[in-house]
Amino acid sequence: MTIKESYELAKKEYQKWGINVDEVLEQLKKVPVSIHCWQGDDVGGFEVKKGAFSGGIDVTGNYPGKARTPNELRSDLEKALSLIPGKHRVNLHAIYAETNGEVVERDQLEPKHFENWVNWAKKNELGLDFNPTLFSHEKATDGLTLSHPNQEIREFWINHCIAVRKIAEYFGKELGTPALTNIWIPDGYKDMPSDRLTPRVRLKESLDKIFEEKIDEQYNIDAIESKLFGIGSESYVVGSHEFYLGYALKNNKLCLLDTGHYHPTETVSNKISSMLLFSDKLALHVSRPVRWDSDHVVTLDDELKEIALEIVRNDALDKVMIGLDFFDASINRVAAWTIGTRNMIKAILYAMLVPNEHLKQLQEEGNFTERLALIEEFKTYPFGAIWHYYCEQMGVPVKETWLEDVKKYEYEVLLKR
Ligand code: RNT
Ligand code: ZN
Fold first, then answer.
1. Pairing between strand 188-189 and 127-129?
2. HSE of 43 in the Cβ direction (CA atoms, 13 Å)?
3. Which residues bind Mn(2+) (predicted)?
4. What residues act catalytically?
5. Domain limits at 44?
6. Are 183 and 161 in contact (CB under 8 A)?
7. Is 393 exposed, middle or buried (0-12, 13-18, 19+ CB in 10 A)?
8. Which of 90, 258, 276, 378 is 20 to 30 A from 100 in CA distance terms?
9. pLDDT tens track for 149-169
10. How many domains does the chain contain in total?
């Protein structure tokens, strides 16, 4: 049976439930995922004067072939994008600036340092998102940045964030789609704090200064990312969930929820509906925590499906900006992007192929038996046949055949590095 024949059969199964699969696929094409560039080089970046890797996160593994230059990174991204169905976005960090061999301090970065990225994004029809980099730097060695007691250090990072927002505005203007600029800081303490308030007061003031200059949301959208703990900030993190939730609501900013930044049994899927009642939009860093905020490659697990269900059944595809955040250096990095991004898209498709309205109705009627029975039965509906057809239709490899492309690329390009 061909892919198309399997698709036609599967389609009928869904049709019985009133799901129009052709329409679903049209809708799916329009859902962008923001792919993080930093999986390609283990969050290294291309600064001339590189600071030691730091910031409460860690990358483990030494798989050969990591990108050493912006061109290598772009070429690896292109390879991954050729294996992922749909039109997507690329998420950059400030450390991916290109400064022509010159040392440019982070508070001095300008749009021109990202010209190559913008030209590349135009050529590949990609939107760009952005992040200031407040780690791996001599002014962040003690793990404090925007909440630092030293005013000069705070100002340096404030100016960095302002510079980054202006660069993001340039992305938005050039590419015709707003850039999401997400601020994440590592600030916190390894051991019990004696004062939780003062650093938070300073963080609040720093954010106020960063956002003083209004930038048209047509070009740049600001987000702030919270965290529960990190390596070296096990006891206290300044930018906690409550801190940013409050800040975002009061100042009309987006909360960015990273799926690895909560207590192990606390799920982001359960937060989306609540948060969207009080803000128009929110952003995600979809990641996979294994025991801790470990940033493993995203798999098609229950929580990923639940996140996708929450977005789809609450009609929130325009409200939730989906981005990825993982970095595994122990496997082929192009494969890591491909696996994680394909899984994110698969999860959205899965959620679109569930009779969501019917299931909602069952719950309203108190029919929990049928609710559970159908949720479970739908797990083995022929979702795979629809996914394979989608890949074929979008001109990307079907099933595991993409692995051949990656192996060839590894042999011909990555292993020569
Ligand atoms: C760290 C945050 C943050 C980073 C990236 C590199 O815990 O998740 O988003 O992973 O900015
Ligand atoms: Zn994150």
1. unpaired
2. 24
3. 261, 293, 295
4. 184, 225, 227, 258, 261, 285, 293, 295, 325
5. 33-352
6. yes
7. middle
8. 90
9. 999 999 999 999 999 999 999
10. 2
Residue 256 and residue 268 in one domain: yes
Q: Which of 296, 324, 352 is the last residue of a domain?
A: 352
343 and 198 within one domain: yes
pLDDT at 237: 98
Q: Which stretches of the chain drop beneath a pLDDT of 50?
A: none
Mutate to test the pocket of ligand 1, among 256, 258, 328 (most ligand atoms within 8 A of CB): 258
Closest ligand 1 atom to 227 CA:
7
Asked if residues 37 and 93 have their Cβ atoms less than 8 Å apart, the reply is yes
323 forms beta bridges with 34, 285
Distance 357 CA to ligand 2 centre (A): 32
- Determine whether the annotation assigns residue 295 to a binding site: yes
Contact in structure between 180 and 283 (CB atoms under 8 Å) = yes
Q: Same domain for 244 and 119?
A: yes
Q: What is the pLDDT of residue 127?
A: 98
Distance CA 126, CA 221 (A): 17
Composition of the chain by helix, strand, coil, percent to 5: 50, 10, 40
Alpha carbon distance 417, 68 (integer Å): 8
Q: What is the pLDDT at residue 108?
A: 98
| Spatial distance between the Cα atoms of 211 and 222, rounded to a whole number of angstroms | 9
- Which pLDDT value is given to residue 53? 94
Q: Which atom of ligand 1 approaches the CA of 225 most closely?
A: 9
Structure-token pair, residue 253: 């900013």
Q: Is residue 302 within a helix (H) or strand (E), and if so which, with residue range?
A: helix 302-313
Cα-to-centroid distance, 344 and ligand 1 (Å): 18
Run of H or E including 323: strand 320-324
Q: Is the distance from the beta carbon of residue 297 to the nearest atom of ligand 1 less than 6 Å?
A: no
pLDDT score of 30: 98
Please give the full DSSP string across 234-255, using - where no structure is assigned.
SSEESS-HHHHHHHHHHHT-EE
Cβ–Cβ under 8 Å, residues 299 and 344: no
CB 36 less than 6 A from any atom of ligand 1: no
Give the orientation angle of helix 383-393 with respect to helix 3-15, to 10 degrees: 130
pLDDT at 158: 98
Under 8 Å between Cβ of 383 and 350: yes
Residue with token string 């100016």: 159
Same domain, 7 and 112: no
Pair of tokens at residue 345: 């898209």
Shortest CA distance to 99 belongs to which of 163, 183, 173, 142? 163
